[in-house]
Amino acid sequence: MWKTLRAGKVWTGKIINKRKDETLYNQDTSITPVKDSKGEITHFIAINRDATQLTMVQDRMAVSEKLASTGLLAAGIAHEINNPLSVIMGLSQILAEEKGIPESLRTDLNTITDQARRAGSITQGLLRFSRGQQPAKSQVSIGSILKQISPLVAYDFKRRGIALTVLSPNDDRKLLADPDQIQQVLLNLLINAKHAVESSPKKKVSVSVAYTKTEAVLSVHDTGCGMEPGVMKNIFDPFFTTKPVGQGTGLGLAISYSIAVDHGGTLEVDSEPGKGSEFRLILPLLVES
Q1: What is the DSSP track for 132-153?
Q2: Mean of pLDDT values over 200-205
Q3: Which of 106, 132, 126 is nearest to 259 (CA)?
Q4: Cβ distance 282 to 142 under 8 Å?
Q5: Position 289 in a domain
Q6: Which of 21, 86, 211, 251 has its CA 20 to 30 A from that of 13?
């Protein structure tokens, strides 16, 4: 920067600045050197612009483009894999039903069938992801969505010693949304939160809603292990997962992000290692005439 300015040229670039509340933000800056009659630089004029919103839009576009290109690849792979999987599953089931075979062999054949079935479920997930099923939108209250979520996971959370709090709104504000797809996103986030807190001394997960003038912000917060910045950067990428091999496909958050975008919203995350994570599903509120 200073090399450019001392040469009497205009410098433009991005810098990280700090607000009064100590939060950091991206800033577009243009600095112009001003010279006197002798051609000496006397001072500089800087024009700054908060680039937070622009950076967010660019990040969202990058993720959307990545999801679209990956979806095309995923569809081709899924179609090619499905046929041999069906053969493997069918033949292993037939062999396992044969009389007189050793039990150890029957156990192995059943394992082959189970794993082939799991691989089949992954390919089905790939196909659903690539097809991008359009939401069947209707007017739905945010409160009704949240009331339906709790019973679906309450027993499993209680069995694992996880305290679940769902704070339903007192009002009846609505979304124009596919309730099944929104429920799918929230369930994905709750399942991830469950896994995040399992090894935490404080096993707490909460769901809440807040509003801006035009949007509803549905938040899922956990007191789990949190994430490093490098993990957060890739968290919505297809097939990216921090779970052990065999325990996740890495498609849940990618599909959730696609659903949010299809509803005119987005999915954001804040996390800090050792302090937990918060996912925010941001959706436009229904404007009733």
Answers
A1: TPPP--EEEEHHHHHHHHHHHH
A2: 91
A3: 132
A4: no
A5: no
A6: 21
Residue type (1 letter), 200: S
Return the closest-CA partner of residue 286 out of 186, 179, 183.
179
Q: Decide: pTM greater than 0.70.
A: no
Task: Give how many domains the chain has, as a whole number.
Answer: 3
Angle at 191 between CA 58 and CA 169, to 5 degrees: 75
Beta-sheet strand order (sheet of 24-35)? 11-18, 24-35, 41-50
* Residue 279 and residue 144 share a domain: yes
Q: Are residues 270 and 156 in the same domain?
A: yes
What is the per-residue burial (b if ≥16 Cβ within 10 Å, else e) of 155-174?
Answer: eebeeeebebebebbeeeeb
Structural domain of 116? 55-131
pLDDT higher than 90, residue 207: yes
- Average the pLDDT over 20-40 and give the result: 81
Which of 115, 109, 190, 128 has the alpha carbon at shortest distance from 157? Answer: 190
Domain-ending residue, one of 131, 161, 180: 131
